Design the sequence.
């Protein structure tokens, strides 16, 4: 609690304001991100939670500047990193920030690492390119780094190729690579989704430990409510390209203020509970080329009224540091 | 409890080894991947047996052998007392009708060139005795209705459906021949959270409606607890522990089960501090070179000399047998002891602010 208060007083590392992204495809314009606003402070973990197609990964790609363009276009908003807008920055200065100040960890380590380069060479390359280090020094640093993410026999394994590592070890290499230049902010896109639970626990613990040590900001993109509860300070729940609820993690799980969040929490089976049918949110997430008018969740919402079908709810402030994009947030909150 | 029915499927010492060969002209076997290495369990009518384990533990290979997509290297699979590995021709066909499968990936397990009607109706082409020709279209429409799809979609193609709807198509196909047993291999893993609940509820409803028995294979321990009556925990081709859902989740006695359960992230930030975490070191060893003795010993914090030389049998440990109670269930560990890692049901945390 105290830690969180301190963070809010310091300046935010990253401020995303009213970000909009669309994909122009043959089948029409898919509005993937429709006005997303969030911020992360140093040492803080923000979880961006959403199902596939909610725009959580696209937002991150736009922040990193690695959006496939075309078909993807940023059509509005600001991405402020330490007060500087990344979107209006030149390509070269942005490239220098990437990796050095903001790093990303991807879900699929096997396809994110270069299969024909040894992992040692890939790690050392970071230092050679960004810091002009000699190859020999860079290799030594790479070995230290692999040791830091607890890869056994790091020195010998520098010469191994990505396919010679297990899934968990590969994800550690991805983390090592993201950490190499000691960035201020790490964006982790489903970092443990492809891993088994016992390995997932190892990797998440490592990530949390390193974050504390370097006082980094961490944006954790995931669909897993369990992982979020384990590590996040704050949560932003996304639906159809919008943030529908944002809150400190304890408050959100104790009393969600948006029917979608409520539905998600009720629809997952719990390890510590047995019995009673799961609540199922009816229907499907909307197609991004055809988002319903009013609240995008209204066709699936048990609370939907006429106003939900016509007026798009803004993010109402529910409590300090909490917001919900629901006309009936009060009723939702009271119910839980 | 549904677990009182007659035994419908019995698996005894099931083994599947995939040979590793060297050479092209003169093939020589140099070893074997021991995907499944002595697995025994039984399934009763109307119950759900969950099989959990990490990737590479052999759970999907077990599923494939149960539906005869793979022939076991050794061991027996008895369906109502008959070994399906010995059967062929007509007799095998009859058994296969009664054991159907729902696959994990609804994107690759449906033929993209066939309409939904053809996919769901194809089993009738192989087993025409179930539905006479003129009757098939109506039957398929009934099935679509049962699994919650619009019967008018019968002429659509798989790509016109979402992931959850495709999984419903796969389930309808599995139901077409009125089977007694359905083997579900990770049926909800590829689905989004909100859709996953729909499919889990559907599977439960169908079980009640058609008196189905499920073998439910998944890596998600929460889903398995929700749906299963009994649970088997697999590690490197062997069962580590088997028991009722409550025995496994509330009274685990095998260290692997305890570690596995403690690693599951729980959607409850208040539990973060209360929970005891057992962090395993290292990875699962290769099934081509499994450790001697107990397979889990390389990652186990209790491992001793005895675990290296002596393979622990899957049986109720002696010291629990005397006492009885929930910890008295088969556990393949020399040093089995009860350790609660999942907070018991109904312990709501005091209001946290």
Sequence:
């Amino acid at each position: 609690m105290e830690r969180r208060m301190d963070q809010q007083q310091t300046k935010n590392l990253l401020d995303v304001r009213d970000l909009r992204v669309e994909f122009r495809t043959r089948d029409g314009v898919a509005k993937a991100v429709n006005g997303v606003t969030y911020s992360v402070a140093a040492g803080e973990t923000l979880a961006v939670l959403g199902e596939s197609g909610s725009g959580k990964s696209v937002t991150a790609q736009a922040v990193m500047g690695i959006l496939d363009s075309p078909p993807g276009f940023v059509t509005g908003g600001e991405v402020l990193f330490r007060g500087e807008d990344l979107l209006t920055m030149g390509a070269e200065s942005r490239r220098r920030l990437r990796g050095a100040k903001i790093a990303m960890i991807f879900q699929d380590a096997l396809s994110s690492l270069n299969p024909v380069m040894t992992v040692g060479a890939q790690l050392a390359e970071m230092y050679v390119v960004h810091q002009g280090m000699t190859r020999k020094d860079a290799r030594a640093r790479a070995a230290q780094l692999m040791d830091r993410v607890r890869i056994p026999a790091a020195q010998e394994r520098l010469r191994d190729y990505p396919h010679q590592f297990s899934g968990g070890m590969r994800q550690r290499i991805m983390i090592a690579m993201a950490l190499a230049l000691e960035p201020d902010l790490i964006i982790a896109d489903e970092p443990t989704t492809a891993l088994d639970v016992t390995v997932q626990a190892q990797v998440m613990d490592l990530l949390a430990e390193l974050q504390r040590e370097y006082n980094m900001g961490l944006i954790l993109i995931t669909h897993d409510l369990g992982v979020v509860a384990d590590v996040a300070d704050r949560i932003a729940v996304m639906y159809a390209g919008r943030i529908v609820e944002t809150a400190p993690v304890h408050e959100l799980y104790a009393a969600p203020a948006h029917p979608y969040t409520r539905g998600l929490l009720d629809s997952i089976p719990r390890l510590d509970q047995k019995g009673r049918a799961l609540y199922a949110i009816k229907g499907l997430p909307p197609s991004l080329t055809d988002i319903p008018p009013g609240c995008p969740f209204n066709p699936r919402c048990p609370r939907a009224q006429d106003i939900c079908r016509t007026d798009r709810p803004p993010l109402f402030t529910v409590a300090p540091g909490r917001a919900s994009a629901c006309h009936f947030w009060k009723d939702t909150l009271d119910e839980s | 409890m549904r677990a009182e029915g007659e035994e419908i499927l019995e698996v005894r010492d099931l083994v599947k080894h995939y040979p590793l060969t060297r050479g092209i002209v003169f093939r020589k076997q140099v070893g074997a991947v021991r995907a499944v290495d002595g697995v025994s369990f039984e399934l009763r009518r109307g119950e759900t047996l969950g099989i959990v384990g990490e990737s590479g533990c052999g759970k999907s290979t077990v599923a494939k052998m149960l539906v005869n997509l793979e022939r076991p290297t050794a061991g027996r699979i008895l369906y109502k007392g008959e070994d399906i590995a010995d059967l062929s021709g007509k007799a095998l066909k009859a058994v296969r009708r009664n054991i159907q499968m729902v696959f994990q990936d609804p994107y690759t397990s449906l033929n993209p060139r066939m309409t939904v009607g053809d996919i769901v109706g194809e089993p009738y082409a192989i087993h025409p005795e179930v539905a006479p020709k003129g009757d098939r279209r109506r039957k398929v429409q009934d099935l679509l209705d049962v699994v919650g799809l619009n019967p008018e979609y019968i002429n659509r193609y798989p790509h016109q459906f979402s992931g959850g709807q495709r999984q419903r198509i796969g389930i309808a196909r599995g139901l077409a021949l009125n089977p007694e047993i359905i083997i579900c291999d990770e049926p909800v893993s590829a689905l989004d959270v909100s859709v996953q609940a729909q499919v889990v509820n559907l599977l439960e409803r169908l079980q009640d409606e058609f008196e189905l028995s499920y073998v439910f294979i998944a890596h998600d321990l929460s889903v398995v607890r929700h749906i299963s009556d009994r649970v088997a925990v697999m590690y490197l081709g062997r069962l580590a522990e088997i028991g009722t859902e409550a025995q496994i989740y509330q009274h685990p006695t095998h260290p692997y089960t305890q570690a596995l359960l403690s690693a599951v992230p729980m959607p409850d930030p208040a539990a973060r501090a209360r929970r005891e975490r057992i962090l395993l070191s290292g990875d699962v060893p290769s099934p081509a070179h499994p450790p001697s003795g107990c397979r889990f010993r390389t990652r186990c914090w209790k491992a001793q000399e005895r675990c290296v030389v002596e393979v622990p049998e899957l049986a109720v440990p002696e010291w629990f047998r005397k006492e009885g109670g929930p910890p008295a269930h088969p556990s393949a560990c020399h040093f089995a002891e009860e350790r609660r890692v999942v907070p018991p049901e109904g312990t709501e945390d005091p209001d946290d602010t």
Observations:
- Confidence is low (pLDDT under 50) at residues 347-353 of chain B.
- Chain B touches chain A through 52 residues (CB under 8 Å).
- The CA atoms of residues 29 and 128 of chain B lie 43 Å apart.
- Residues 255-323 of chain B form one domain.
